[in-house]
């Protein structure tokens, strides 16, 4: 997703919070596609209303179908692929995680919408100039692919010779896998907005330093520090568990596909199965890289803000030493508080990406050695 651009006239004004909050049209695009996976973000007052009753029926119905297709896939994998025990276990584990992601999104959908409204409000107050056309175009393409890919896989399996064991697996992909894909797009969307907020904050502080206005720098920093950290705290509470399960899902899929492609017996795989696994692998790896880079950008932009504040003593501003000490302490706190983690267990940064890639490569090498 492209970064939003802003001019010098569009810097943050702390008193701009009175601006009216317009509907988040970008979020509406994502929530519309969630209807395809049976998750309704449409607001309703009570479950006893007609709207709430229909939404509940949709949630329960699609969840039951997802569980059924998951059970059917486990049955077919266990009975028809008894030689691929490791692949069957990891594949089942990945599908269970995908189902958990669906239930987590169902549980937190109101908090997700609330977080998006808070981020939109902060965006407006910071006067970020959104590149709405490019952003919406990206969302339409990404969300459309998240729906078309599972559907195309299902159609492809229907027109091949081995439909007997692939139909239920493809339906399971259609019912369960679309929710993780859309959830990844939702997380990328939120993390990109947080990155833009941090970069705009950094640009404003840099402007104050360039104009030799230390008082304005201190005022803007202290007032916006609390809003940004509170916003990130709300996002972390809402999305950290989702991010944790997303990475578990993606890694399980990668391990499952790697196991399938390396340990498969000669003549035991059809061309459709190979193409299906290859397409899924490319899709998962692309999602992993894109999601990780966006999350890492949030952490890196916060560190850039800290480094800028730490350069204050070298500027030799006519600053009160106590104010300088306060700013330096707040800068350290900012870098540690404004970050994206996986349920608080690990920080998502470029080091995490390299470590994960190393684990996957090591796993593949071990499988090759065992297979030979």
UniProtKB/TrEMBL annotation:
GO molecular-function terms, A-Z: signaling receptor activity
InterPro entries per record: 7TM_chemorcpt
Residue spans crossing the bilayer: 53-78, 84-105, 138-159, 174-192, 239-262, 274-293, 352-371
This protein's record includes keyword Membrane: yes
Membrane topology: Multi-pass membrane protein
One Gene Ontology term from the biological process aspect of the record: detection of stimulus
GO-annotated cellular components: plasma membrane
Pfam families to which the protein is assigned, alphabetical: 7tm_7 (PF08395)
Protein's cellular compartments: Cell membrane
Keywords from the UniProt entry: Cell membrane, Membrane, Receptor, Transmembrane, Transmembrane helix
PANTHER family the UniProt entry points to: GUSTATORY RECEPTOR, GUSTATORY RECEPTOR 5A FOR TREHALOSE-RELATED
Protein name: Gustatory receptor
Lineage: Eukaryota, Metazoa, Ecdysozoa, Arthropoda, Chelicerata
Name of the coding gene: AVEN_259223_1
């Amino acid at each position: 997703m492209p970064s939003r651009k802003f001019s010098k006239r569009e810097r943050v004004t702390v008193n701009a919070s009175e601006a009216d909050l317009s509907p988040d049209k970008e979020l509406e695009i994502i929530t519309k596609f969630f209807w395809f996976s049976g998750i309704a973000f449409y607001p309703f007052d009570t479950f006893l209303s007609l709207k709430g009753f229909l939404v509940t029926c949709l949630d329960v119905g699609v969840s039951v179908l997802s569980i059924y297709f998951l059970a059917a896939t486990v049955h077919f994998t266990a009975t028809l692929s008894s030689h691929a025990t490791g692949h069957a276990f990891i594949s089942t584990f990945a599908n269970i995680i995908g189902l958990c992601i669906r239930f987590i999104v169902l549980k937190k959908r109101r908090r997700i919408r609330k977080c998006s409204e808070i981020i939109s409000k902060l965006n407006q107050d910071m006067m970020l100039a959104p590149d709405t056309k490019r952003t919406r175009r990206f969302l339409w393409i990404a969300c459309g692919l998240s729906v078309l890919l599972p559907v195309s896989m299902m159609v492809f399996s229907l027109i091949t010779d081995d439909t007997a064991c692939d139909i239920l697996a493809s339906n399971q992909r259609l019912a369960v896998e679309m929710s993780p894909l859309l959830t990844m797009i939702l997380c990328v969307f939120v993390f990109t907005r947080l990155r833009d907020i941090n970069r705009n904050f950094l640009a404003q502080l840099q402007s104050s330093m360039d104009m030799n206005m230390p008082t304005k720098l201190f005022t803007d920093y202290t007032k916006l520090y609390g809003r940004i950290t509170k916003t990130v705290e709300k996002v972390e509470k809402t999305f950290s568990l989702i991010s944790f399960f997303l990475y578990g899902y993606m890694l399980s899929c990668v391990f499952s596909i790697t196991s399938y492609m390396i340990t498969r017996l000669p003549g035991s795989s059809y061309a459709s199965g190979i193409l299906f696994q290859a397409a899924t692998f490319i899709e998962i790896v692309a999602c992993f890289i894109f999601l990780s880079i966006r999350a890492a950008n949030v952490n890196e932009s916060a560190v850039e803000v800290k480094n800028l504040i730490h350069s204050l003593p070298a500027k030799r501003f006519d600053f009160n030493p106590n104010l300088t000490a306060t700013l330096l302490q707040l800068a350290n706190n900012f870098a540690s508080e404004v970050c994206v983690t996986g349920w608080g267990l690990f920080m998502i940064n470029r080091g995490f990406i390299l470590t994960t890639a190393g684990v996957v490569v090591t796993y593949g090498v071990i499988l090759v050695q065992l297979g030979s």
